[in-house]
Each structure stands twice: as C-alpha cells, then as structure tokens.
Amino acid sequence: MTEKTSTLRAPYATVLKPYGQALVELAKRKSNVICLGADLTRQTETDLFRDELGDRFFNGAMSEQNLMGVAAGLARSGHQVFVNTFGVFATRRPYEQVAMQIAYANLDVKIIGLMPGLSTPGGPSHQATDDIALMRALPNMTVVDVADAREIPQAVEAISAISGPVYLRLKRGEIPVLFDESHQLDLDNVVVVDGVGDSSAEVDLTIFATGMMVAASVAAADALRGVGLEVNVVNVTSLKPLDAAGVLREAGRSKAVLTAENHSIIGGLGSAVAEVLAEAGTGVPLRRVGIRDTFARAFSARYLFEHYGLSSQHLVDTAAALCGRSAPFPEVIDVPQEVGAYSPV
Q1: Which of 2, 44, 92, 129 is the 20 to 30 A CA-CA neighbour of 296?
Q2: Dist. CA 33–CA 26, nearest whole Å
Q3: CATH classification of 12-176 is 3.40.50.300, yes or no?
C-alpha cells in the first residue's frame, strides 16, 4: 500500500491566524475587497485587517441581520465583501437576510463562519451544528469547509475568484498543518489525501471527511490499518457544489463508506453523500459519524467531541463494526497535545 506523502501525522504544527493574514494579502491586491465584522474582530482574526487596511474595515456591531444588508448594498456597488463572525451568528441568526438579500440576488459576498460545530465550549447558542445544512439549502450559495492551515490561504483566493455568494467554514486561532507544502486545495474534486495510491485498487473502507474531522479520520485510518483493513481518507472541501462523480468513483471501489463531520448528520456531509449514493442506486453500506439529532452542552471541545461521538476512536468503532469486525476494536494511539501543537480527539 502506498501512502499519500502529502499527509502528515499528529502532533501537528500550528499556524496562528492564517485566515486573517490571507485576507489582508488578498485585499492588498484587490482594492474592492471590504471587510465587515460584528463585534468579534480579534476573535475572527480581522484585527489584522483593521490594523493594516482600516479604511476598508467596518464593524457593524451585534446586529448581524443589518450587517448582511450592508454587505448586500456594498456588493451591489461593486465591492467584494467578506462578512466575518462566528458560524452560528453568520447563518442561523440572519438567515432571512442571507437568503433574500444575498443568495437570491447572487451577490459577491463571502460569509466567513468561524468556530464551527463543537469546536466552541459556548453551548447551543454558539455552536454552529446546522450551518452547512442551512447554507446548502440556499440556491447560488457555495459551501466550503477546509481541513488545515495550508488550505485556508488557498481557500481565500479560491472563493474570491467565485463571483457569487460563498459560505466558508473555519476553525479559528491556532490552525493545524495536516499537509505538506505540495498540497493543493481543490474545490472541484474530492481528493484521497491518505490511503491506497493506486486509483483503481479496491479498499475495505472509504472515509469521506470534511473540516476538522479530516485529522481525526487519518488517525482512525491508521488504527484500522493495524488490523488489516485497507482504508482511504477522502477530503471533501466543497460541500456545495459536491463532486458527485468523485463520490461515486471512490465509493465504487470501496466495500463500505463512512462520513465524518463536525456538524449534524442531518443536512451536512453525511446527507450529501447519502443523496448521491441513493440516487445512483449504489448499494454500498454507509454509516454517518457526526452530531446526532440533538443540541450539545457547554463544555470543553475535547469533551464534546468524545461525548457526542466525533472522536477518532468512535470513528474506529463504527468503521470496524461496519466492516464486519468483532469487538474489541483497535485502539487509536493517544497523541498528547503539546504546547503549540494540535492533536485530533
């Protein structure tokens, strides 16, 4: 089995505020880029933009519905607008305005939702566990969820090149580096980032993962390979439009499929993959790992990922049972999270 050499292993080095840096660099080259915030400037990394390009930075305060209207007006005036806040405040709270003022008009507004899913201890008022589902449902909206610090600057460039509205989902703060310098973001295709190098080889399991769950899926795949299972990890960066042909290609050479997302299993990646497989009449067994039909608690992110079944070990247990293995299942090696580094749960 040939491993994809671009995929690194935990503990991962981290980069501080890669999104904020990338947005500043983009705006220096594109004079029509405007940055909007909602009283979360430091928390959304846009303090870097404010400090360097203050004449194009506007704080709309905690009035996200109004902020989306402002973004729409600026976009109609020829600006490319980046709206920055936590994911739950970028989607659930101003959904009507996003739908009717931005998506319906197909405007050049990029909505950046930070602190996705269970990455925040703030409880259901702050946990964006349904944001992908909400934004996938909007016509004209592109939905992107990136895996690491290599992909973030590339994603900023890529979504800037899209003329219509985009929702970009980001972990904030210190971001892990999962891939080496050769890694290229691909919004058009799902990509095997870890697994069997031969594109025609059959595998026991394919894990379709997005965002923060890519690192957890790589750790789970390592444990599963230890008991003789051939496993591919596929990075799904674009949730909408979804590379349906790529999903069918990878599922077609796999005996079983698992999806992994830091989001509700309703309406997110698991639903999207299931829709593709069902409409194609594919009979491959499928299991979805994500947040079940529930609101989560206010607690540490590590606890939440374990409690709600998003850990690497839960991926292993689900996958091993799906592949017909009996308990006890292989254990994921616990990699301590060092200072300045990142290890998946």
Answers
A1: 44
A2: 8
A3: no
Residue count of the chain? 345
* Concatenated DSSP letters of 183-222: ----SSS-EEEES-S-TT--BSEEEEE-TTHHHHHHHHHH
State pLDDT tens for residues 55-82. Answer: 999 999 889 999 999 999 999 999 999 9
pLDDT value at position 77? 97
Per-residue model confidence (pLDDT) at position 5: 44
Reference 299, options 124, 47, 91, 61; nearest CA is: 124
Residues 6+ apart with CB under 8 A from 161: none
Q: What is the pLDDT of residues 166-215, one digit of tens each?
A: 999 999 888 999 999 999 999 999 999 999 767 778 999 999 999 999 99
Mean pLDDT of the chain: 95
Q: Look at residues 58, 118, 63, 112 and name the one whose alpha carbon lies nearest to residue 86.
A: 112
Residue 1 has pLDDT above 50, yes or no: no
Is residue 340 a contact partner of residue 12, using CB atoms and an 8 Å limit?
no
Query: Which residues have a Cβ under 8 Å from the Cβ of 73 and sit 6 or more positions away?
Result: none
In order, the DSSP letters of 82-118 are EEEEEHHHHHTTTHHHIIIIIITTT--EEEEEESBGG
- For the segment(s) 191-333, the CATH number from 3.40.50.920, 3.40.190.10, 2.60.40.10, 3.40.30.10 is 3.40.50.920
Radius of gyration of the chain (CA): 19
In this structure, what token pair is assigned to residue 217?
């899926």
